[in-house]
Amino acid sequence: MTTAATDLRTFTTLDTARGDLLDVYADVRAPLLHLPNYAVTAFGERLERHSTEPGFTAVLAYADGYPVGYAYGNTIEHGDRYWQRTSPAPAHEYTERLAVALKEIGVRTQWRGTGTARLLHDAFLAARDEPYVTLMVNPAAGEGKVHALYRSWGYEDIGQSQPSPASPNLTVMIRATC
């Protein structure tokens, strides 16, 4: 049985993390890579754009030096396109101050169910001072299990978003960071 990865590394630039992020992403999303929104090149473009936005942070999990999972995101502010694409418009209490958007979280199949995703999530939030964290989830992911997992972590649904024409409709979720 695989145990949770214990080596967590935090990055604020892509310089040394890019290769491991792309490698883990390609493995995690392997069944979906044929879809334009999930292609490694599309992810790489999003990752590059997100890495230049304020407050970018990535946390990668390693097991014996092998990258097994990641979480990354950045700060969003009032008027950010993240909020503009959310329907219905989020409550003012969420958008009036800075928030952190958890843009991606992924764990290789062998390490799922070990607590690695939660370790990544919590490590990502540990260094944040924004009052709220938001994320988008495909409600069909894992036959609904991913959405249910985020609910068990305290997230609640606040709307829908389709970040790009190639993207599925996603559920926007939010919770307090602490």
Radius of gyration: 15 Å
> Beta-strand level of the residues, as a percent range?
25-35%
What is the CA–CA distance across the termini? Answer: 31 Å
Question: Share of helix among residues?
Answer: 25-40%
Main sheet: strand order:
1-2-3-4-5-7-6
Low-pLDDT segments, ≥5 res: none
Shape: globular
Count of individual helical segments: 6
Going by helix content, strand content and strand pairing, the class is alpha+beta
Indicate the mean pLDDT. 92
Number of beta strands: 7
Give, in order, the helices and strands: EHHEEHHEHEHEE
Q: Report on the biggest sheet.
A: 7 strands, mixed
How is this structure best described in words?
With 178 residues, this protein is an alpha+beta fold. 28% of the residues lie in helices and 29% in strands. The protein contains six helices and seven strands, in the order βααββααβαβαββ. It has a seven-stranded mixed sheet, with helices on both faces. Strand 6 (156-161) and strand 7 form a beta hairpin. The longest helix is centred in the N-terminal third of the chain and has 12 residues, at 40-51. It is globular, with a radius of gyration of 15 Å. It starts with 6 loop residues before the first strand and ends with a strand. The mean pLDDT is 92.
